[in-house]
Amino acid sequence: MDENTCFYGFSCIANSDDKIASDLAKRLLNRKLFKYQDVIDNKMIDKMRNKLTKRGYDLRYYFATDEVKQRPYQPYKGDELSAIWILMNNGKILELSEASNIVHSLVHGENKNEEKMFFPID
């Protein structure tokens, strides 16, 4: 599907009798996208959910959380087929995280975990 096809579909849905589907389609078409905020604790989530509920939003469609975990490379852990092996100039074969200082620092560095919540602002 290309962008034009998607926008045609959204424009059809924008005229739908389904108020939620219509509203969400109009938000996409008019670039009135949901905002996001980093989640610090569950109290923040509860507070936002309560706020949206009081404003009449159906949380199934107007609120979401997402947790992103980033670990660029996971080293060999017993499954030789999943590992990346490097033939060194001296003839030794090493797993990528042993052969590269950059990859080694990524593997042994801090994993990045972020949680965000998404919601409309009107």
TrEMBL record:
- The protein's name is Uncharacterized protein
